[in-house]
Amino acid sequence: MRLRGALALLLSALGTASCTVVVGDGDYYIVNDGGAGNDATIASEGGSRDDVTVAPDGGTHLDGTLGDVGAASDVDSGNESAACGAGLSACDGGCVSLTDLSNCGACGNDCTRLPHVSAVGLACQGGTCSYQCAAGFGDCANAGAGCPTSVSSSTACGACGASCPPTAPLCSPSGDAGAFGCVAGCPPSAPKLCSGSCVDTTTNASDCGTCGQICTTSVANATAACVASACTFACNAGYNLCNGGCVTYTTPTHCTACGIACDTTTGTPSCNGTTCSYTCNSGRSDCNAGTAPDTDGCETAASTCSPDAGTADGGPACASTDTIENCSACGVACSTATGVASCNGATCTYTCSAGRADCNAATAPDTDGCETSLTSTLHCGGCLNQCDTLHSSGAGCDGTTCVYTACAPGWADCDATPPDLDGCETPTSAVTCNTCGSSCDTTHSLGGACNGASCAYSGCVSGWADCNKTPPDSDGCESNLTSPTSCGACGTICDSTHSNGRSCNGTTCSYTSCKAGYADCTTTSPDADGCESSLSSVSSCSKCGVACDSTHSNGASCNGATCTYTCSAGRADCNAATAPDTDGCECATPGCCPGGACQVSHSNGMGQSFYDCVPSGTHTQAQAQAACAAFTGNAGQCVVPIPALCGTSQPTSSVCSNVPGASSFHCWEYGGPSPGTVQTGTGTNLVFCPASGDPTWN
């Protein structure tokens, strides 16, 4: 009968929509098959109650709660509303008003869980959620289901359907909080371009840390958030951080504070945010109902309250008023729900449980015990430790210190020392330019000011420069121009690769010495290259200015002491033993003479040359033989002729060419009447008579 009654109620609530009932493993589901109604789920707790949850089709946030189905089959009877007080309805095991934000017009119609609604102006009016859209979102469908549409894109920038023109195609946050406008380029406040929108990836939950990184959260009654480029969550309006979740302090489970639970064993509880109240079971009474938060339920085992009915057993008048059951007066009981109680006859005192505190201990008789959760943002870690909400958002408490999801624009949480009650206490000005601890330099800088993103300076004191301008540039003119790393100007670094003992006088670098094999050959100010010259290079061989000649060589090299060469054809390096030998292949001859002298170049009178170490003008048979060989290219074709001189038989002093097949021959005379001349003949006609046109050889 309980299941039938529950199903009947749900089917009635769902109307004529086509639904499927799924039953299995003790859980019961009613699944919408595509009709216009709502899907309903009955989830068995394994005990005497069943939770019944109705979620609208296609929605992403609204879960409506029909309430608990108790052992007495409340759903069957339809009398659960009657069991609650006037103006209250039974929802999820408790009695609630259908005018509150969490149950607006129907159980579970939670206005605070609508997508992207602002806490400002959020209300339940006439059973319908009334809201304003959160910054950057719009209710473009005007469906009353929240604000799912982003108005920070180029197709909806600042308002539904407001497309950006080609001249300003990007959508960016404007100067007004929560406003967006079309721009040509992304500003410093939202420097990252993500899918046509300018965003700040340190705080944007849709592009957290990088484009496309969408923050999500599985925490109920919470909204995903991005803080310092990392995803987190923030409790929705009307909800509070409690044990890692987000709850409202108007439910029997968390009444007035996190973990303060109304008793459910002696009646049906409800909570108005200040105290528990009860519809008592038969034969029970709530005689201390005026003592908030009244967590002991219908504590009296009697149907009516007598003057002494506040005693634990509802029995006769108390004999003593210094017990925790009767503290200062009969029926004035000290709470034992959140700590160990004692009574001094006038007021209750407590040793509180972990995470609890007795913040109204001075108000006798103090019967509510350790009424305060130290995870409350009003009493974070201690009584009256209230977390800041002036310049901070998403305030929560972990039991020791306040935590915040974000700061208001222009503010930063620079002093996070627990319990961090002041939140985002520091304005991001010249004292804290864009980030905590980044005050604009005044030591070596002139006219320091902050534009909200970075420091700017009008100049530097003498001898200093602003070389590191990376925002927020809080170090200002950080570079000493007498430093070897910025010698005279930014970026001028005195060499340390091949140099020892570098220093700077504010204009140029100087060095105490060079490393082995190197020299400082170029000393033009600022001489940042130091010992730039290798003494094994052909441009500074063994010392500065000593350059190896490469005019007549196929390649020059240096071993650190002297130049060496591969000479071109017809040239020789005859003084190679004389370091550093910078003249290269200095001899225009193919060989060298003893002592390193160049060979003598001789002309054979016929257009060829020959080389030896004999002085020019020497005419001997050996020289004539060499002159002839230079002509024929073969010394074997050079012979001494039959003695003849002008037709007379005289000893000849010539060497003649004897080239087979040649029509003429030439004789190089080294003695006789014309030494040093070349005689020419044909056939067997030996002509050794001097003539004025005879070529000469040397």
Q: If you had to describe this structure to a student in words, what would you say it looks like?
A:
By secondary structure, this protein is mainly β. 5% of the residues lie in helices and 28% in strands. A 5-stranded antiparallel sheet has the order 1-2-3-4-5, with helices on one face. Strands 56-57-58-59 form a 4-stranded antiparallel sheet. A two-stranded antiparallel sheet has the order 6-7. A hairpin with a 4-residue loop joins strand 37 and strand 38. The N terminus is likely disordered.
> Could you give the order of strands across the largest sheet?
1-2-3-4-5
* Broad structural category: mainly beta
Low-confidence stretches: 1-82, 309-316
- Approximately how much helix is present in the residues? under 10%
- Overall radius of gyration: 53 Å
Count the beta strands: 59
Sheet with the most strands, sense and barrel status: 5 strands, antiparallel
| Average of pLDDT | 81
How far from one another are the termini? 142 Å
Q: Number of DSSP helices?
A: 4
Q: Strand content of the residues, in percent?
A: 25-35%
Q: What's this entry about, in short?
A:
The protein is mainly beta and 698 residues long.
Essential attributes:
698 residues, mainly beta, 5-stranded antiparallel beta sheet, 4-stranded antiparallel beta sheet, 4 helices, disordered N terminus
